[in-house]
Amino acid sequence: MKLPKYSIGIGDRFGRQGKAQLAALVEAKARGVSVAPVWNKSHREHTTIGSEPGDVRAEADAAVRACKWTDPYFVDADHVAMGNVDLFVASSDFFTLDVADFTGEAASQAEITAFVEKYRRYVGALAVPGIEGTLEVSEDQIGAIAARFLLAVKEAAKIYRHVVTAKGAENFITEISMDETDQPQTPVEMFFILAAISDNGISAQTIAPKFSGRFNKGVDYEGDAGQFAREFEQDVAVIRLAIQEFHLPENLKLSVHSGSDKFSIYGSMRESLLKFDAGLHLKTAGTTWLEEVAGLALAGGGGLAIAKEIYAKALERLDELTAPYATVIDIDTAALPSLELVDGWDGRAFAAALKHDASCEAYNVHFRQMLHVAYKVAAEMGDGYLQALSENEAVIARNVTSNIYDRHIVPIFMG
Ligand SMILES: [Zn+2]
Asked: What is the sign of the dihedral through the CA atoms of 52, 400, 307 and 394?
């Protein structure tokens, strides 16, 4: 199974927007750009919503039938670990193997020494075709990378072989993710991590490093955009070199766990992709859920009432809802609108505060992040929430499709 050059990870918390999401890719294809949809959902999301991996497969299949989509599509077991991979084996054909938890532990000294020995030939100035200058590699650096990552890659290899046994190596895509570590990985680190991935026999088609800067959920990039651009371009070039040096799959590409809406860095990403004729997997967060809330608000009446109720309950449970996302959100509680204020809003005012339009004065980045993590509240509303989605399907679908197409697909894949 081969992942196409361009692909996008689309999360859909409540599993109702598959068709509206796919409509964005149908639109891109009509304009000559093929982007493969990958429906992703993590174990954490399933647990919070009360859904199962099989539900995502059913949603994807139904959307594909409804839109008469004949190109490849995938279902991603996102950030899967040995402890929960079996839940995903039957329904997923894309596995994001999360090794972040192990990067704090060191490999044995013998393994580290052997790795340094094997890759000593790269010590010095490493020329990477396509980028200016060289990357500096020292023996100590290779040793430090081995100490930090060898165990993590070995752990990923265990999960990989487990899935190979269950499904057959040709029947799924493998992504290695390290984006949930504390420290970003440099391009040199990624080069040697790819060496270790090859050594461990993992046929990875995408790799998701942690980049410098903050990738908060549903809001724009925070950090040095120039540094990110250099890092991204070096990563793209390093992957191309690693494919040759370490005999990795020729379509191996970067995966960016973007958390959605990184509008300020999409332009530089696009430039690097064009320069290197490289592919990309853009994983987005579950901001489709925010389009549902915005759509409900815009629909007015009962829809707006539900949107307001979700916010009111979320405020009451702020600590509980934000805790699991502490490292990927920055909410200034003093900047959150009061319940009284929100109560007086009409649908347009609610949607304007929520929708990510930096040029709109009413946009409130704290309000948006608060609602992003509040999907548990909607999940607890059960049928009441799902019923409202059905009743307001048309307005919600418009929001979902245009969010993916205009704000993500066009800037990154069409430019
Ligand atoms: Zn991730």
From this structure: negative
